From TrEMBL:
GO terms for biological process: proton motive force-driven plasma membrane ATP synthesis. This is ATP synthase subunit a. It holds the Pfam family ATP-synt_A. SUPFAM superfamilies: F1F0 ATP synthase subunit A. It is a multi-pass membrane protein. The chain crosses the membrane at residues 49-67, 103-121, 150-169, 214-236, 242-268. The keyword Hydrolase applies. It is found in: Cell membrane; Membrane. The gene is atpB. It comes from the Bacteria. Keywords: ATP synthesis, Cell membrane, CF(0), Hydrogen ion transport, Hydrolase, Ion transport, Membrane, Transmembrane, Transmembrane helix, Transport. Belongs to the ATPase A chain family. GO terms for cellular component: plasma membrane; proton-transporting ATP synthase complex. Key component of the proton channel; it plays a direct role in the translocation of protons across the membrane.
Length: 276
């Protein structure tokens, strides 16, 4: 079966592979290449990094702009929207995280908005930005959904994992933290190896589940858009894309919310002290 790809005719398999390839920077010779042409560890998915940083910058600049021009009177629509988001995040933090912390609420807000912006890129036309990148800058491929890249989601989950370790050690102390790893759930020295294995699996499963859940959902959503574009004629794509895009708005928002809530829950669990 042949489909139209960026003004050319290609097979459906080639079309799908084209859109699932990353624009990578080969660190050996500092050249931009397609992911399928490089079999090396020393590469960077430059498209995912670029859009992640760009969307993070948009988040920071827009919130800073609104904060500087916020009024105590009747707010405009943008200020109202941002205030609703902040109140929503603060309520979840207060309900879950019982300790006083100046970090958790800003962290939760950053995670929610940043992931939402990365996820919402999935609603752009599949061929729009790759076509512009090829036409203007002659780039071979371009993926525009950073959260559909396992490297991005694992990097964010790793940051959360480092905070879990930090709060666990800071609140409980290094000795209590080690005791929890070695003396739970079986409080006897003979079970220390078993306890360590069980608690290590429980600890490591937190960042892994965060990363894989977000990646899996966004990768699947992106693939469905690609299949719709590759299998159907352009006039039928709109009929299918619109209801799927409306449903996908719920998915991208829910995934950002789940990542934020689980981060707060994991950090709250890290601050809980147990008698060992």
């Amino acid at each position: 079966m042949s489909v139209s790809k960026l003004g050319e005719t290609t097979t459906l398999k080639a079309y799908i592979c084209h859109h699932l390839n990353h624009l990578q920077l080969d660190l050996h010779n500092f050249k931009l290449v397609k992911a399928s042409t490089v079999a090396s560890f020393w590469v960077l998915n430059i498209d995912s990094m670029f859009f992640s940083l760009l969307l993070g910058l948009i988040f920071l600049v827009s919130f800073y702009y609104v904060a500087k021009r916020a009024t105590s009177g009747i707010p405009n629509k943008i200020q109202t929207t941002i205030e609703l988001i902040i109140d929503f995040v603060n309520k979840n933090v207060r309900d879950i995280f019982q300790m006083q912390s100046k970090l958790i609420a800003p962290l939760a807000l950053t995670i929610f908005v940043w992931i939402f912006l990365m996820n919402i890129m999935d609603l752009l036309s599949i061929d729009l930005l790759p076509y512009l990148a090829q036409y203007i800058w002659n780039l071979p491929v371009l993926r525009v959904v950073p959260s559909a890249d396992i490297n991005i989601t694992f990097a964010m989950a790793l940051g959360v994992f480092m905070l879990i370790l930090y709060y666990s050690i800071m609140i409980k102390g290094i000795k209590s933290f080690i005791k929890e790893l070695t003396m739970q759930p079986f409080n006897h020295p003979i079970f220390i190896p078993i306890n360590l294995i069980l608690e290590s699996v429980s600890l490591l499963s937190k960042p892994i589940s965060l990363a894989l859940r977000l990646f899996g959902n966004m990768y699947a959503g992106e693939l469905i858009f690609i299949l719709i574009a590759g299998l159907l004629p352009w006039w039928l794509q709109w009929i299918i894309n619109v209801p799927w895009a409306i449903f996908h708005i719920i998915i991208v928002t829910l995934q950002a919310f789940i990542f934020m809530v689980l981060t707060i829950v994991y950090l709250a669990m890290a601050t809980e002290t147990h008698k060992v």
